[in-house]
C-alpha cells in the first residue's frame, strides 16, 4: 500500500529559487514541487503539501508558530502516514525539540529537514535532504512506521530531534547529536539503527499547545557580574532560568552568586543546570564547585541540550502544575531528551 506523506513548508533556505535574470533568491510555489524536484515522481509515495501563507526565516521562529505547526499535524494526523517539515536550519533543533514535547504518544514520523543552499542552486544539498526525508517518513516495516518520532534528517544522517544542535553554518553537515547515536544513515541504502529509535506509542496521541516562555538563560563566564546576574534573576514574571555552567555542571562558589540563586529558588524560580560542553553531562556534586548548587535546589539537566532544555521548560511550565511536580518532570526523561 502506498504511504501518504504531508510535506509542510514553513520557510527557510530550501524553499528558495534563484531568478535566472537577476540572480536574486525568492520563494517558489510548493504546489509545483515536482517540477523543481522531478525525482519525487519516481517515489512510490503519495505526497501532498501544505505551506505557511507567509514563509518565515527560521530566525523569526516563535512558540506561536510551533502551535501553528501542531495544529496542521493535529488536523491531518489520521489522514497521513508521516509528516515532513521543511524548516530553516538555524532554529531547527529548537523546533524539533519543542514538537517532541508537544506531541505526546506519537506513533508516526515527523521529520524535519532543510538545506544550506537553496533548492534552485545547482550544488544544493536540498534535493537529497528532501527526497530522503520523505523516504524515511514513508518507511514501514510490517505495516508500521520505522521512525515514529520527531527527527531531523540532514546530510545523510537521521538524528533524534531533541538531541541535536546546529554546530556548522559553512558546511552541509550542519547538525550534530553529541550525546545520542544517529537513528539512521543514508548511503546506498538507508540503514536504520532500530535499537536507538523510539517505539511507536500504542496510546492515543495527546496534543499540547500551552507553552510558557517566561524563561531566561544565564551563560556563565569568568568574571560574570553580580548586577547582571541579579537583574536577570529578579526580572518581573520570570519563572525559570537555564544556567549554562562549566564542565560537568560547575559554577562560581562566591557567596553573592550562591545567595542570588538561592533567593531566586526560594521565590519559586526554577534554575536548570545545563553544561556549556557539547558532549558530556551535568553531575551536580561531582566537584565542590557544583555541590552548593545541589544543596540550594538547582535542578541538574543531565545531558540535555540547551535547545531541548529551553523547550522542555516551556512545555512543563505550560502545564501549570504545582512547583514540586514541575521540578520532578524536568528531571524525568519525557521524550528521549536525556539519557536513562
As residue ranges, the low-confidence spans are none
DSSP summary, beta strand count: 20
The helix/strand class is: alpha/beta
Strand order of the largest sheet: 4-1-5-7-10-11-14-15
Overall 3D shape? globular
List keywords for this structure.
single chain; 340 residues; alpha/beta; Rossmann fold; eight-stranded mixed sheet; four-stranded parallel sheet; 9 helices; 20 strands; 22% strand; globular
Please describe what this structure looks like.
It is a single chain. Helix 6 (255-266) links the parallel strand 18 and strand 19 (270-275). The protein is of the alpha/beta class and 340 residues long. Helix content is 27%, strand content 22%. It starts with a strand and ends in a 9-residue tail after the last helix. It folds into two domains: 3-207, 3-Layer(aba) Sandwich (Rossmann fold); 215-331, Rossmann fold. The protein contains nine helices and 20 strands.
Task: Provide a compact summary of the structure.
This protein is of the alpha/beta class and 340 residues long.
Give the arrangement of secondary structure elements:
Elements: E1 3-9, E2 16-18, E3 25-27, H1 33-36, E4 45-51, H2 63-76, E5 82-86, H3 92-102, E6 103-104, E7 110-113, H4 126-138, E8 140-141, E9 144-145, E10 150-154, E11 157-160, E12 165-166, E13 175-176, E14 184-186, E15 190-192, E16 206-207, E17 215-219, H5 226-233, E18 240-245, H6 255-266, E19 270-275, H7 288-296, E20 299-300, H8 306-318, H9 323-331
Parallel strand pairs: 1-4, 1-5, 5-7, 7-10, 17-18, 18-19, 19-20
Antiparallel strand pairs: 2-3, 6-16, 8-9, 10-11, 11-14, 12-13, 14-15
Amino acid at each position: 500500500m502506498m504511504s501518504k506523506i504531508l510535506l509542510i513548508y514553513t520557510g527557510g533556505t530550501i524553499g528558495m529559487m534563484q531568478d535566472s535574470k537577476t540572480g536574486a533568491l525568492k520563494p517558489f510555489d510548493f504546489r509545483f514541487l515536482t517540477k523543481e524536484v522531478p525525482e519525487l515522481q519516481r517515489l512510490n509515495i503519495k505526497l501532498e503539501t501544505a505551506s505557511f501563507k507567509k514563509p518565515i526565516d527560521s530566525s523569526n521562529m516563535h512558540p506561536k508558530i510551533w502551535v501553528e505547526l501542531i495544529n496542521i499535524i493535529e488536523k491531518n494526523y489520521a489522514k497521513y502516514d508521516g509528516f515532513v517539515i521543511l524548516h530553516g536550519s538555524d532554529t531547527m533543533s529548537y523546533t524539533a525539540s519543542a514538537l517532541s514535547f508537544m506531541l505526546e504518544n506519537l506513533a508516526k514520523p515527523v521529520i524535519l529537514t532543510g538545506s544550506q543552499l537553496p533548492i534552485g542552486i545547482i550544488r544544493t544539498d536540498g534535493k537529497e535532504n528532501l527526497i530522503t526525508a520523505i523516504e524515511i517518513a514513508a518507511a514501514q516495516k510490517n505495516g508500521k512506521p520505522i521512525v515514529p518520532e520527531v527527527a531531523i534528517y540532514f546530510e545523510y544522517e537521521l538524528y533524534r530531534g531533541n538531541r541535536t544542535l546546529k554546530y556548522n553554518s559553512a558546511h552541509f553537515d550542519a547538525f550534530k547529536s553529541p550525546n545520542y547515536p544517529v537513528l539512521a544513515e543514508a548511503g546506498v541504502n538507508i540503514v536504520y539503527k532500530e535499537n536507538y529509535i523510539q517505539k511507536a506509542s500504542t496510546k492515543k496521541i495527546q496534543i499540547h499547545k500551552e507553552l510558557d516562555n517566561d524563561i531566561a538563560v544565564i551563560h556563565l563566564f569568568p568574571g560574570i557580574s553580580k548586577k547582571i546576574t541579579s537583574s536577570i534573576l529578579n526580572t518581573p514574571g520570570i519563572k525559570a532560568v537555564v544556567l549554562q555552567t562549566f564542565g560537568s555542571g560547575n559554577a562560581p562558589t562566591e557567596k553573592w552568586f550562591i545567595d542570588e540563586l538561592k533567593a531566586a529558588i526560594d521565590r519559586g524560580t526554577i534554575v536548570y543546570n545545563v553544561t556549556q560542553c557539547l558532549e558530556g553531562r551535568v553531575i551536580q556534586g561531582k566537584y565542590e564547585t557544583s555541590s552548593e548548587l545541589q544543596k540550594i535546589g538547582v535542578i541538574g539537566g543531565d545531558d540535555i541540550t540547551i535547545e531541548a532544555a529551553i523547550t522542555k521548560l516551556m512545555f512543563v511550565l505550560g502545564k501549570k502544575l504545582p512547583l514540586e511536580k514541575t521540578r520532578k518532570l524536568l528531571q524525568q526523561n519525557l521524550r528521549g531528551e536525556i539519557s536513562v
